[in-house]
Amino acid sequence: MKARVNSITRLRVNSDGTGVRDVVFFYGCPLNCVWCCNPETRYGSNYEIITEDELFQLISRDLIYFQNTNGGITLSGGEPLLHSDFILAFLKKYGTHFNTNLETSLCADYDMVQRIIPYINEWYIDFKKYDELLHRELTGKSNEAILNNIRKLSTGVCTDKIIITYPVITSLNDSPADIDGIIQFMTSCSLHKIKIHSYRKYTEKKYQTLGLAHTSFPRLPDSTVAEVYKRFVKSGFTVIVHDTKIEKQKCEILKNIRRTVCEENSLPILISECNYIGRCAGTCPQCEYELEQINSLMLKENSI
Predict the structure, then answer these.
(1) Which helix or strand (DSSP H or E) is residue 136 part of?
(2) What is the value of pTM for the model shown?
């Protein structure tokens, strides 16, 4: 089994689910959203065709981080459900080593959704627009099947595992009517978790790199984000807002995990202090060297 994978972003902390996570971006999407933040997953040929064994090899170096933070992998895109056969084969073979989240628009046949339900820990469902005609105008597709899929999923999965993600775009889906539509729909499905994020300006550079024209949107004012947040909270929803500050703490979090693993397994590896100041990717040469040494010794002990 093979799939087209655009990229893998390693070591994200509490941003795509719990703990430390690697995010796998699959290539291809049935939607054509005017604000798409990942155009590289829809255009060009910048992807690799890999097997499920090759994907596990790529993410397995981070198992100690996953297993010590209740973390794992998040399957994203594009639309990962376009690769549901691959995902099913991969998770049947390797899914017991970590928990798995799925970021999806649910723009797919429901049988693609149903067969992977037993292997998904959390569902992050991108909700673009409640109005069907405007959804078609902004994404190129009707949302009828999407809404039906959400309804079906909410009856087949614990609703605590379903998070609606709401990309709020100025003048496109930030009106009181838009928010009321989402509130009413989520309430009808007994859904109570929503993650809010606003338009990402860095998207425009991606389009420039790909040589594509792109409609620019103004950044949503903080006051508007706060108002959207309040409306959902007043309606009884749990609202999740991505905490970018955690990125600055990532180095310390990962270093402490490496130190704990070494102590618990009596590994003779010195975990160095890091003097770097700034946003941390967690993949500096020293960190990667320590991780490689831990994995090498742990594998000899058959501990991971």
Answers:
(1) helix 132-139
(2) 0.93
